[in-house]
Amino acid sequence: MTEAERITLACLDLAGTTVSDSDLAETAFNEALGSLGIVAGTAAHDRAMAHIRESRGHSKIEVFRRLFPADEARARAANLSFEQSYDAAVDRFGLTPVPGAESTLERLAGAGVRVCVITGLSRRNLGRVLDTLDWWDRVDLALCPEDGGRGRPWPDLVLTAALKFRVDDVRHIAVCGDTAADMLAGRRAGASLVVGVLTGAHPRDLLHQAGATHVVDSIADLPLPTPALPH
Predict the structure, then answer these.
(1) Are residues 197 and 177 in contact, defined by beta-carbon separation less than 8 angstroms?
(2) Of 21, 101, 144, 179, whose CB is crowded by the most CB atoms within 10 A?
(3) 70: helix, coil or strand?
(4) Nearest to 48 by CA among 10, 74, 73, 22
(5) For residue 49, what are the contacts with CB-CB under 8 A and spacing of at least 6?
């Protein structure tokens, strides 16, 4: 690995990448739509869920704003319902890491790579995920759209992490996620390593089309450095 390719910061997605989603987000989206009278089995529900699935990885409030472009109050009501439903689903079903995720976090730490988790969830839901997994000490930074700028597919949160850790060169950044939005954010931020995983929302071809430099089966296969051997 050349100096230009040396990875010092890894920006990792949560649900579907490091955390097994187990349809929690899908359940919360369905319940949020239901709270607005958009119920399963209707054409309106089918259209809304198609939009939501295409938009996985985006900020949740922005997903609802695109769904209800002329009604900010309705978008905010749907987003609040999603947040409440997601927290309740975590309470009911719990969360588990994707197999190999925790060992990958350990490998990154051992190699001196700073780890930032990035999500389209709200700060409230992000906190619930990290509390449930007891991951606060496993990551160096956790960012969501409420931390400023735009959420994915824009590069803002990746670049926020780069500024936080004083990354010398954006080519020293790795981005890993399960959605096209993750891939776009990584490419737009200039990351040299943009890795799609097949444990979440989007298939291999869509990840490649969005700019993945690698597509691997899971976070356990993340092509990052191992700790240097002692001299």
Answers:
(1) yes
(2) 179
(3) coil
(4) 74
(5) 29, 30, 33
Strands of 114-118's sheet, edge to edge? Answer: 141-143, 114-118, 9-13, 173-177, 193-197, 214-216
The encoded tokens of residue 40 equal 């399963």
Token digits of residue 175: 């981005």
Locate 135 and state its tokens.
């991951």
Q: Which CATH topology does 9-21+96-221 take?
A: Rossmann fold (3.40.50)
d(Cα 47, Cα 150) in Å, to the nearest integer? 25
- 172, 148 Cβ separation under 8 angstroms: no
153: cis peptide before it, omega within 30°? yes
Measured from the Cβ of residue 72, the count of other Cβ atoms closer than 10 Å reads: 12
Contacts of 155 (CB under 8 A, 6+ apart): 185, 186, 188, 189, 190
Please give the pLDDT value at position 2: 52
Q: Where are the domains of the chain?
A: 9-21+96-221, 24-93
Nearest Cα residue to 122 out of 89, 90, 144: 144
Q: Is 90 left (phi over 0), alpha (psi -120 to 50) or beta?
A: alpha
Q: Which is nearest to 55 in space by CA: 44, 64, 68?
A: 64
Closest CA to 63 of 72, 51, 71, 74: 51
